[in-house]
Amino acid sequence: MKIILLSRFCHKKGSRPLSPYKLAFTVIPLFGVLMGGALWAGYQMGVSEQPSAVVVETTADAVHDLILSQREEILDTKGRTQEHLDALALRLGQMQSHILRINALGERLAKLGKLDEDEFNFDEEPARGGLDSSETAQSVSLTDLVSEMEQLSLVISDREHKLNLLEGLIRNSRLAEELVPSGRPVEKGWVSSGYGYRNDPFSGKKAFHRGVDVAGKKNSNVIAVASGIVTWVGKKSGFGQLIELAHSNGYVTRYGHNSTILVKVGDLVTKGQPIALMGSSGRSTGPHVHFEIAQNGKTIDPAKYLRKKR
After folding, report:
1. Which residues cross the membrane (predicted)?
2. Beta bridge partners of 197
């Protein structure tokens, strides 16, 4: 093989013969240099692209961490919300129990006050109404709802306290009424002899009658005209089978001429309770009850007490 050499300076040309061995030693190093340069360029390009891959990986890690943080925050918020809901449910249950007590108190007061049960029906929702304001209405926030529930709880507690006091006053008033004599000592009967001077039914002479006689059917109920304690039971001259009851404010009532006595000394009797059966024991002309009222040791005319309702 020959290599032709040209020179523009000397305008000469020539050729040199190359053997295969010389050609190999010439081309192979040149090829190696070219390949080395290409590898070096590829390496430099790879190094220049490496930071971009690192940035992408770092960004992915940051997004992953952010998602985990938001997930934990959502779970924490959900837990706190559930705690608030549980607290509200507990508070609501307490308010419902107070309302049930208030309803029970209201029903008792309606009965004690003898009010119209249809008008004061605590099982029905109170009647309400008004114009449609849905267009301007606003939803209640959780904070406002909690505040209104607390205010309502205070009102409920206040009303419950006042109703308890009112019930106590009514019961005390009713108790006072129970302890004061009123009404007739029989379920059915009529006044056959009044209080004061009268003609004695046996002698015909004027004599002072310290009570009233109420006639009725034999063995009908004789009832207490006031709550009290039995202080005397037994036979007494002229009165036959007698019962004496002690009441408040110095009142004493006596029931005579009974056929059968239903109570004993020391018994606590209530107003309207049967205490004996009507008879004609003692100095009597027929079935009736001799009824006396005394206050502070002195007998008084029972007429005005008989007219009072039990």
Report:
1. 21-43
2. 208
